[in-house]
């Protein structure tokens, strides 16, 4: 959907208040509203307030799919916030092309972002026509299976070491009254789960053939059929979850009501808030214990063009603060994500974060689908997998529809 059409649709129904009167107040919009996320955001706000400016929190309840249209509508409708969260990739591409977003190249050059941000693809995804338009704040990876020690103990089976063992343990979990796989009802969760199955079970080459090369033969071939079969297994295992939000599904794992959840490393924030210890109360399997690759997804902040000089200066201060070493450590330890700076000390990282750092150090990283696919194609994928996981659609039919979506990708 074009910006013009999206703005016309949203402007009539959405309006949010401007930031309050102080010249250096800066409204920051984001969709981080779970307990663990709120604790992480508080670290960003504290660091920014220490600059003499004031963070005005503009949290929007719901997922990114709910928040992004509101953010876009405000920017295109002449009511821009001071800064706004988007995921790494192409979500703000049209806003930049429309001349509505601030060029941060001066800040990036002054603070040598090209030398400190790792992997370099994160800054590349902020760069359009040679200019830098966003400040990356973290590396989030989707490719994790979180497992409840209490659930497997109750079911009388050992903790799985990979996806296949997890699937094999499902009957024992069900017999004990435990949902094997917690999966929230929002479309992005279903689509994300499928992508994790693709990269973790299908492997790096298949993932890149599908999303980077758009290889029609690979997309319709037997290796992809096996991934869709795994998605069918996941659909069966997730029956009975009956929650919507991802953090509600995570809470099922925390409380032993579910055996596991395929979710990004942001789930760690919820385990930490609940006082759970990695390696004792829960286990984490990067790459589902099969192929330990992670995608370099995550979050970045974009800054709409503002006419107010004081707020423009505050924007530069916030961009600088987000990449400050101390801010990077404090925020990411609570968020469960990895820092975008390669020169910070994360000695306090838990076992799961250390696994992620080790994978990053080995270079076993790939671009996320947000970096490889347009927002429109991502939405079509979400719609497909939302239908697949809530219906009896066959895996073969889902694969055919998926092939048509990718064939239309730009």
Automatic annotation (TrEMBL):
Endpoints of the signal sequence: 1-23
InterPro entries cross-referenced by the UniProt entry: Bact_solute-bd_prot1, SBP
Listed Pfam families: SBP_bac_1
GO cellular component: periplasmic space
Major place of residence: periplasm
Record localization: Periplasm
The entry's keywords: Periplasm, Signal, Sugar transport, Transport
Family designation: Belongs to the bacterial solute-binding protein 1 family.
Function: Part of a binding-protein-dependent transport system for a sugar.
Name by which UniProt lists this protein: Probable sugar-binding periplasmic protein
């Amino acid at each position: 959907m074009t910006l013009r059409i999206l703005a016309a649709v949203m402007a009539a129904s959405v309006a949010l208040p401007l930031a309050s009167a102080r010249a250096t107040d800066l409204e920051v919009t984001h969709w981080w509203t779970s307990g663990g996320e709120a604790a992480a955001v508080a670290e960003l706000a504290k660091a920014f307030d220490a600059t003499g400016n004031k963070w005005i929190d503009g949290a929007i309840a719901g997922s990114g799919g709910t928040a992004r249209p509101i953010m876009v509508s405000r920017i295109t409708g002449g009511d821009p916030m001071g800064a706004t969260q988007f995921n790494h990739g192409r979500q703000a591409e049209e806003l930049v092309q429309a001349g509505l977003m601030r060029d941060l190249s001066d800040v990036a050059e002054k603070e040598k972002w090209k030398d400190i941000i790792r992997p370099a693809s994160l800054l590349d995804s902020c760069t359009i026509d040679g200019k830098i338009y966003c400040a990356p704040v973290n590396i989030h990876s989707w490719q994790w299976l979180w497992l409840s020690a209490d659930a497997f103990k109750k079911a009388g089976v050992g903790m799985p070491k990979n996806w296949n063992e997890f699937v094999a343990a499902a009957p024992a979990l069900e017999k004990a009254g435990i949902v094997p796989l917690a999966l929230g009802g929002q479309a992005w969760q279903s689509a994300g789960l499928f992508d994790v199955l693709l990269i973790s079970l299908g492997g790096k080459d298949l993932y890149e053939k599908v999303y980077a090369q758009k290889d029609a033969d690979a997309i319709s071939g037997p290796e992809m059929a096996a991934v869709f079969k795994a998605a069918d297994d996941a659909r069966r295992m997730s029956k009975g979850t009956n929650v919507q939000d991802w953090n509600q599904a995570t809470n099922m794992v925390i409380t032993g009501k579910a055996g596991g959840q395929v979710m990004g490393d942001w789930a760690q924030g919820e385990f930490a808030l609940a006082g759970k210890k990695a390696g004792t109360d829960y286990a984490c399997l990067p790459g589902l214990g099969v192929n330990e690759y992670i995608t370099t997804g995550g979050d970045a902040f974009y800054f709409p063009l503002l006419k107010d000089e004081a707020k423009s200066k505050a924007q530069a201060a916030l961009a600088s603060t987000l990449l400050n070493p101390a801010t990077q450590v404090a925020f990411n330890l609570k968020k469960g994500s990895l820092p975008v700076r390669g020169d910070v000390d994360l000695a306090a990282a838990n076992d799961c974060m250390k696994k992620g750092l080790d994978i990053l150090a080995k270079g076993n990283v790939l671009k996320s689908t947000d970096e490889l696919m347009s927002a429109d194609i991502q939405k079509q994928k979400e719609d497909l997998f939302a239908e697949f996981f809530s219906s009896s659609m066959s895996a073969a039919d889902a694969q055919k529809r998926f092939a048509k979506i990718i064939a239309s990708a730009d």
